[in-house]
Design a protein that fits this description.
The complex is a heterodimer of chains A (about 525) and B (about 300). Chain A is α/β, with parallel strands linked by helices. Chain A has 18 helices and 22 strands. In chain A, the strands form five sheets. A six-stranded mixed sheet of chain A has the order 6-9-10-3-11-12, with helices on both faces. In chain A, strands 18-19-20-15-21-22 form a six-stranded mixed sheet, with helices on both faces. In chain A, strands 2-1-4-5 form a four-stranded antiparallel sheet, with helices on one face. The two termini of chain A are about 30 Å apart. Chain B is mainly α. In chain B, helix 2 packs antiparallel against helix 10, helix 4 packs antiparallel against helix 10 and helix 12 packs antiparallel against helix 13. The longest helix of chain B is centred in the last third of the chain and has 27 residues. The chains are: A alpha/beta (about 525), B mainly alpha (about 300). The interface between A and B is medium-sized, with 33 and 23 residues.
Amino acid sequence: MRARPSHFSGDSEDVVLDVRGIVKRFPGVCALDAVDFELRRGEVHALVGENGAGKSTLIHILGGVYRPDSGSILLEGKEVCFSGVVDAVHHGLGVVFQELSLVGGLSVAENVFANRQPVKFGDMIDRRRLYEETSRILGLFELSIDPSRQVRYLSADERQVVEILKAISHEPKVLIFDEPTSSLAASHVKRLFNIIRKLKAQGCSVIYISHHLREVFGLADRVTVLRDGRHVETCAVSEVSEDELVRKMVGREVVDMYGGRTASVGQECFRVEGVSRKRQVKDVSFSVGCGEIVGIAGLSGAGRTSLGRGIFGADPFDEGEMFLNGRQVRIGNCRQAIENRIGYLTEDRNEQGLFGWMTIRENCVAPSLGCFVKRFGLMDEQAITDFAEVNRFKLNIVAPSVHRRVEKLSGGNQQKVLLSMWMGIKPQLLIVDEPTRGVDVGAKSEIYHLLRGLAGQGVGIIMISSDLLEILGLSDRVLVMRGGRIVGEFGRDEATEENVIACASDVLLRQDVELK
Amino acid sequence: MILYIIVLGVVAMSYAVPQFMSRQNISAILLSMSDQSIIAIGMTILLISGGFDLSVGSTVGLSGAVTAIWLTSGMPVAAAIMMGLAVGALIGLVNGLLIAEVGINPFVTTLGMMILVRGMHMVVTSGQNISGLTKSFTALGQSSVMGIQYPIIISLILVFAGDFALRRSRFFRQNYYIGGNEKAAILSGINVKRLKIFNYMLTGFLAALAGIIITARLGSASTTAGKGLELRVISAVIIGGASLRGGVGTVAGAFLGASLMSIIISSINLLGIDIYWIDFAIGAALLVAVIIDTISKKGNELR
């Protein structure tokens, strides 16, 4: 172990990873244009930028997935060139990817030690040591998961934690987190931050990628901003404000993130009375006015998504009544909801929302195929193309044409396509579940303006979100769910971060306070 | 792509063996593939919607046999045909219910049905071929209009209709959405379960139609009718561009796939090559088609 350098001698800071002039071109686009990046020992270095800024490309290069066209990577002063992911791991670079890479049918321990299980008698897996080792690492995380439990029985939160453990178990010098909190509950985020701080204390360097600037400011020592494949700036987080950072990421001033409020809420658009579903939703009643955006906050598992899916008929309620424009409606499946012009923007656009291999134009008419029929049940192809073109323009979907496959679009543009799908049914009520998950700042603001615009036309909007800032920024009224019930309601002026968090978590989670 | 291969093959063959382009030979090729093309319509729709059916070969056998049995017992031709078709649709209904409602994997369900239906075929026929069918029935498979046999006409009409419907009609287009992302299709308000059940019934119905036509053409219901046909049909559909992952494929492609396989068989016969090479060539054609498709997709992803 070498001596820790003094914090005061800026020049002799111990640089673990030095990336110089990395260029990576893909056909038609220069993803990284001579990017420099420097990581010191034991620091948490945040990497921020809009989708398409080149963050993913950079970490794919560091993780050995891509090879750079030019430029060099120096690891502890020695130039390295990774032949692949395994080689990068051997050099001490671990990446926790967004996509999960776990095997559902194997135990937690065997996933954590995938392909490196301790063995005895030649090639027999030493289960006792395997479980002990795993328990030790789980202990670091203050987790009480049984190491012998099969991964498929774990919750999404727990799975992501196992994914992180898998990377940590290689004892890397540099650990890269790519949007690690996008599927974690608040309590797990806290644990994750604790483990990152522990890793840091042990001298491990961390590259942390996140859209949540709050996390960047709470966790990171320094931050590097990328924009359009170029390095914009690296600075200590203490020297920069949130607004400045956003401006650097977007490259322009984001003046009005959320758009104006609806002047006055119209008559009642939609109301539920005493709806319940199994243990997920319990006796919920509330109403939405025409042109009103009602935000639904709560922790993951509070029943927010179940409520949205229940209204939409995807997982129908067992009891309770629903009224649309004062008239009672029965919704037992999604078709009936769509017939009543209720739309539901799913929280998981890749798994449940979009048809990835299909084109923009095919996607945006999926829920409204019936509106594009000529005679004899034949499709009116021209009308579909026109509709898609109008949406591409209105929603500012950046794509060369509406014949582009949706899987090739960036997250923000995919989310806009998802939103455009519901324009075709001319919704009276639109339920949006995590409308800006994995979407960059610029596109976020556009989506907020679109939702506000819809509300302006008299559409009632129910917005389910884990992003407290958007709940507070966009909602006309905030409902808080906990344990399947609505436990709080706040008007536009009463809703504050403290109120909503306290209400959502019952116990005062001081997470956000601690972060600062 | 596959069209080029076929054109190339046909041109090469017509130089190598002049009688390849003769009316008789073309007729023979089309006749030999008529049953496959008819079933391939249903199979294409199934593959597009993320489904799969191994039981079609057995359905061909059973429906041909029961139609023949009812004919020999004196039932009117039209009624016997209707009953045969109903048997096929019923097998499809069972497949569809097990897959869509119970939620069993299509491979396992139709594998079970393939064996079960083949067994029923043996039970109802006691393992005997059934011949001595009435002329008015066998005419369906043996007569011709302007020198074109009925099976060819029926298969071509169905292929055209199927291709058109799958390209243009709202009802059939929903299948691409189901195969593209089933969960998203449900949330888009598409009645996924009903459509799946319909697809299996349609495929069973078309398999029964093929079985009846084969019986009429041969003048008897053979105990081996339709054996191995399911794999040839699936091969044709995949050569024609469909994928087991769902979401892609066309009936025209499947028809071309079936054509390619029949042309290969005909070429091997005409060139006097040992017929034992037929399976080898068809297997190779399937693999080459899939390899080209996979590599070209990888090329696309880099872009």
